[in-house]
Write a structure and sequence with these properties.
single chain; mainly alpha; 67% helix; disordered C terminus
Length: 83
C-alpha cells in the first residue's frame, strides 16, 4: 500500500487564487506564465483529488450511519447565491 500525500486544501486554494491573480495581471513573460500555469494545473488536480476523497469519506459515513447513501446532486449556483 502506498502512502498518499496529504494536501492542505485551504492553503492550496489560496496558492491557486494568488497564482491566478499573477496570470491575470498579464505582467509575466511567457515562459514564467507557462510555469505558473503548470503549477496551477498541479494544484487544481491535487484539490480535486482531496475533494473527491472527502466526498467518498462522507458517503461511507452516511452509509455506515444508516443513511440512504445516495448523494444529492450539488448545484454550485445554489451555494453562491448568498455571496
Amino acid at each position: 500500500m502506498t502512502a498518499k500525500k496529504s494536501i492542505n486544501l485551504e492553503k492550496s486554494l489560496a496558492d491557486l487564487e494568488a497564482l491566478v491573480g499573477e496570470l491575470e495581471s498579464g505582467d509575466l513573460p511567457l515562459d514564467k506564465a507557462m510555469k505558473k500555469f503548470e503549477e496551477g494545473i498541479k494544484l487544481t488536480r491535487g484539490c480535486q483529488a482531496a475533494l473527491k476523497e472527502a466526498e467518498q469519506k462522507v458517503e461511507i459515513l452516511l452509509r455506515s450511519a444508516g443513511g440512504e447513501g445516495a448523494l444529492e446532486k450539488f448545484d454550485s449556483n445554489d451555494s453562491q447565491e448568498g455571496l
